[in-house]
Amino acid sequence: MRRREFIALISGSAVVPLAASAQSSEKAVIAFLSARSAKESAHLVDAFRRGLAEFGIVEGRNATVEYRWADSHYERLTEQASDLLARHPSVLVSVGGDMTAKVAISATQTTPIVAVFIGDPVVGGFVSSLGRPGGNITGVSNLNAVIEAKRIGLLRDVKPGMTIVGALLNPDSITAATQRKDIEEAARLVGLTVKVLEAKNDQELDAAFKSIVENHIPAVLVPADAFFAAARNKLAELAASNRVPAIYSLRESVLSGGLMSYGNDLPDTYRLIGTYAARIIKGAKPADLPVLQPTKFEFVLNRKVAKELDLMIPADVLSIVDEVIE
After folding, report:
1. What is the DSSP string of 71-108?
2. Is 10 domain-assigned?
3. Is 248 in the same domain as 224?
């Protein structure tokens, strides 16, 4: 049951006029590069298509979309980007993490790119500023540092008295160092220390949770990452079997049996990406499209998992839940 939406400010101007001399959108080619998998991204692709349609671009009618999925294997992205660019797309959509954006910007300095950024794209060197990106890339930034602080606070609320929190990181991700800094700073602000555990495959996830149990770590934060998104079923199983409360970045992780998630409404992010891709096809330039921040955030709780973990969810936490999974 959804109760409310959190509204974040949009960086820069909320409305940017389309270029007066928009190019024809007839059978435009859209390149879609993702570090995630096709199966677990089907609902996100639907949202992307809705965004395209808001500006009159319909896949199969006046545009062709070429999809490439790395299935959490970042090493595949470079070849996939080259393959897509050989098709001379009107725009390259880059999703699934900052590694995808890095590969995209390394592959082309001319083809317009619309990306989802996990971290701050200015700090990451992708854009000159949020309001005026410059260059050939723009997109949506996920406010990761702010979100990590909220997630850690929620873990502390459901596990009062804890002094340490675990955090999973994928060492193969280019955002791992930034995520670690953000998580450690967020934990410090609420008086917690962080035990970082690295995992980039299923075997290392097993080892990470073994370490969590051996070190009596009471709760775990799972930040945004393409591998963690793909491994959400295994993560939920490990957390449940080891009786460790965990918070995730994606609602899908809670649907898979995770305890709770807090993050931006990812389908809405993909919808925004679709609107930008369509606007570029119609003549807008990435340099003139401000990097957006998410307009919707959601806190999702799995009541059944909470009961199985014998957690008493405080009333003030329940009052801010957007959706309860029964």
Report:
1. TT-GGGHHHHHHHHHTT--SEEEEESSHHHHHHHHHH-
2. no
3. yes
User: Is 17 part of any domain?
Assistant: no
Asked, for residue 85, whether it belongs to a domain, the answer is yes
Measured CA to CA, the distance from residue 215 to residue 191 in angstroms comes to 19
Structure tokens at 137: 């890339």
- H or E element that contains 70: none
- SS3 for 253? helix
- Whether residue 151 is contained in a domain is answered as yes
Place 288 in a pLDDT band, splitting at 50, 70 and 90. very high
199 and 163 share one domain:
yes
Q: What angle do CA 164, 301, 11 make, to 5 degrees?
A: 85
Alpha carbon of 69 to those of 11, 45, 204, 230: distances in Å?
A: 29, 12, 23, 12
pLDDT digits (tens, 9 = 90+) for 197-242: 999 999 999 999 999 999 999 999 999 888 998 899 999 999 999 9
Tokens encoding 185: 């700073």
Q: What are the backbone dihedrals phi and psi of residue 105, each rounded to the nearest 5 degrees, phi first?
A: -70, -25
Per-residue pLDDT tens for 4-45? 443 333 333 333 343 333 444 468 999 999 999 999 899 999
